Amino acid sequence: LLPAREPEVVAAPAVPYSYCSQPRALPARPKYRAPPDAAEPEKEPVHYANLMYDRRVVRGNTYALQVIPVSTQPNHLEIQRQREARKRALARKRAKEQMQPRTPEPVEGREHIHVQTELYLEEISDRIIEVDTECQTDAFLDRPPTPLFIPAKTGKDVATQIEEGELFDFDVEVKPILEVLIGKTVEQALLEVMEEEELAQLWAHQRAYAELRNAELAEVQRLEEQDRRYREEKERRKLQHMQMLQKQKETTEKIAARAFAQRYLADLIPSVFNNLRESGFFYDPIERDIETEFLPWLMTEVEETLERKVLGRTMLDSLICTVVEKRLDTFSHQPLSGQTEAPAEEPRPTDAAPQVAGETDAANQLVMEKEETDRLVAEEQPSRHISFQLEESDQAGTEDLETE
């Protein structure tokens, strides 16, 4: 054991104790680290109580130190620069903490707990376990004793004669030795026999235990297999029931869809056919041929005939107007009765006769052309009447088909 230290006598201080800084309570230290997104609490100014950590103490060579007088005020730019540097450091630290991977938030109804993930678990308790341990140093070994001084042998050896039977009697001395040997041998044999019997009993107990254990394992396996079969049968029955319900639902939906489709399409097909018929998709080929081929040709021919008729009438009217104007001019320029040259001018009507005859011939020709055009128009009117009758009969046939 270590020697106990004598209690030192503490002398009462002559001068009362003074502090470098005012005593203060330690801030409450949280048990766990705060999350990265939590607001960082404001840190109180640190009051240094140890000169080794006071920044005002200069270390090293002080020859080139620029001593700033106490009365000098601190530079505002330097203070602002220090504040900005501190803000940047805090922002960098906060960003670094946010970039670190965190545990995802727990789902609803659960909460996170703190567990130990070290290789060796440590029991956490409020009271720290204290154990007293002692140690003892080895004692110093003494120097071995000095060997006795034995002088050198001098003189002659002297012998002593011992007769037979003076020191050892075999018959008397061997008896306890034999008793010990035989007793040990018999005892060892008995121990071995008892050990063999005990081993035999242990083997019997082991065989019985193994048989019982095998029987229990077989029973457990049988029960597990029976439970597994029951569970599989239950799952199979549930699946069959779900499939049956699914098929019933699908059948019901199909029947409802078929009924809805029938009700919806009952009036759809007639309305579609009516719309297609009204739009002109269903038509009679003969009627369509008459409308697209015959009627346009007929109208074109009628227009050409009417144009020729109008042109002939216009030309006839212009010729008649010309002849009438010429005759009016001729009759308006007749000679007076008192002129002497009247007999000489009588042959002129004979000269003008060819002109009048020509004019009358042209008028007669125009009249003949007009009569011929009237005859052609009269001939075309029955054909037009016939075409109109054919068109009416085709429309009646199409209406009969639609009613059917």
Automatic annotation (TrEMBL):
<feature type="coiled-coil region">
    <location>
        <begin position="213"/>
        <end position="240"/>
    </location>
</feature>
<keyword id="KW-0282">Flagellum</keyword>
<feature type="region of interest" description="Disordered">
    <location>
        <begin position="332"/>
        <end position="404"/>
    </location>
</feature>
<keyword id="KW-0597">Phosphoprotein</keyword>
<keyword id="KW-0966">Cell projection</keyword>
<protein>
    <submittedName>
        <fullName>RSPH3 protein</fullName>
    </submittedName>
</protein>
<dbReference type="GO" id="GO:0005929">
    <property type="term" value="C:cilium"/>
</dbReference>
<comment type="similarity">
    <text>Belongs to the flagellar radial spoke RSP3 family.</text>
</comment>
<keyword id="KW-0206">Cytoskeleton</keyword>
<dbReference type="Pfam" id="PF06098">
    <property type="entry name" value="Radial_spoke_3"/>
</dbReference>
<keyword id="KW-0963">Cytoplasm</keyword>
<feature type="compositionally biased region" description="Basic and acidic residues">
    <location>
        <begin position="368"/>
        <end position="383"/>
    </location>
</feature>
<dbReference type="InterPro" id="IPR009290">
    <property type="entry name" value="Radial_spoke_3"/>
</dbReference>
<keyword id="KW-0969">Cilium</keyword>
<feature type="compositionally biased region" description="Acidic residues">
    <location>
        <begin position="391"/>
        <end position="404"/>
    </location>
</feature>
<keyword id="KW-0175">Coiled coil</keyword>
